[in-house]
Specification:
By secondary structure, this protein is an alpha+beta fold. Helices cover about 35% and strands about 20% of the residues. It comes from Chryseobacterium vrystaatense.
């Protein structure tokens, strides 16, 4: 029987529980984050961004800054859809491991098993592509890129564009960030699954996770709540350069919202898409041929914030920049999107993660 005395005792305990669960002192914390973001996103009349912080899935901070569309004078909202650039690589890596889990490929397979005529393909493995250790020429560093930037390229055309370029180093010799490797992974996903990369990601990840506002990027399809991308020139802002999304393809052509990206992070934590053994492969550090360890798993940089391990990745594509940081030990997720490539959320997002970590550990 619950007596009046019991209720009197329980109320402060319950209230204390709420405070412990929230962990971060709201007003002081919010002002700290506001001031940090406003160092880079101070103008209400310029392109802006969206930032979100969660712990254990609960929102600690969720705000929008600036304009989603300058021409129509539309304010940014936390629900706006952004191009996420190289954060796409996370989805490509997980898709590869989903196929491995189904027994359709192995990360140690040579790419010649899937693309028979690829130069030196017998020595380059899927693992090399995932970890940026293949030595293949990064197509974004090729002078000829401008000749195809606005063309509709099939995946095999993209592969043909860079495959005969001289390699930068032997497979496994060093780590060097490489977009070509992730284009090859997208092509392998299509070959193995029998689906287009776009369809595979949509049906096997977006729909399964409930990411209802995430897309393979397009300038033609109507995207509800789309944030428009901008560059900054000496005379002011201009609309982003138009490119064919078939060029960055599986290395950088997805769009999403911060809320959908939280669903993505939770799906990874809950092994919704991968079993624990496959998930472990994603977030472990690997070694080069000489035994030296490097700080990249499959689709994520594996670093630390003041000694606390984190998983992070950014993205940059014409008109947009993105950054996500996840701290596994505290289940903290921080993500920032910008709709001008003149405003980088990278350091701001890492600093927000640092402040959040400090606030929680107090």
């Amino acid at each position: 029987m619950i007596t009046k005395k019991t209720i009197t005792i329980l109320i402060p305990i319950l209230l204390l529980g709420i405070r412990i669960d929230a962990q971060v002192p709201t007003n002081k914390y919010e002002k700290k984050i506001d001031s940090l973001i406003l160092t880079g996103f101070e103008s209400k009349n310029e392109p802006g961004g969206v930032f979100m912080v969660t712990q254990k899935g609960k929102s600690l901070y969720h705000k929008a800054f600036g304009k989603a569309n300058l021409e129509l004078d539309v304010n940014m909202t936390p629900k706006n859809v952004f191009q996420i650039g190289s954060m796409t690589k996370q989805f490509t890596a997980i898709a590869i491991l989903m196929l491995e889990q189904q027994g359709k490929l192995n990360v140690n397979d040579p790419i010649s098993k899937y693309i028979a005529d690829y130069p030196n393909g017998a020595k380059i493995t899927i693992h090399h592509l995932l970890t940026h250790t293949s030595g293949i020429k990064d197509f974004t560093k090729m002078k000829a890129l401008s000749t195809i930037a606005q063309k509709e390229m099939k995946p095999e055309m993209m592969v043909d564009f860079f495959k005969n370029e001289p390699v930068d180093f032997a497979p496994g010799e060093k780590f060097e960030y490489n977009n070509s490797g992730y284009v090859l992974l997208g092509y392998i996903i299509e070959i193995v699954s029998g689906q287009t990369y776009e369809d595979f990601i949509k049906k096997n990840i977006f729909e399964k996770v409930g990411m209802l506002h995430s897309y393979y990027a397009t300038d033609r399809q109507l995207i509800p709540k789309r944030a428009y991308g901008y560059h900054q020139k000496e005379h002011g802002f201009v609309n982003k350069t138009v490119i064919s999304f078939s060029v960055p393809f599986s290395s950088g052509s997805l769009m999403s919202t911060v809320d959908d990206m939280l669903k993505w992070q939770q799906a990874l934590n809950q092994n919704t898409l991968l079993n624990p053994a496959e998930t472990k492969k994603v977030f472990q550090k690997y070694k080069l041929n000489n035994g030296e360890e490097f700080t990249y798993g499959y689709g994520w940089h594996l670093k630390d914030i003041n000694g606390t391990p984190d998983r992070e990745h950014g993205g940059s594509i014409f008109g947009f920049k993105s950054m996500g940081v996840y701290i596994p030990s505290e289940d903290i997720y921080v993500i920032g999107f910008s709709n001008c490539d003149c405003h980088s959320p990278t350091e701001i997002t890492r600093n927000i993660a640092k402040i959040t970590l400090q606030s929680i550990k107090k």
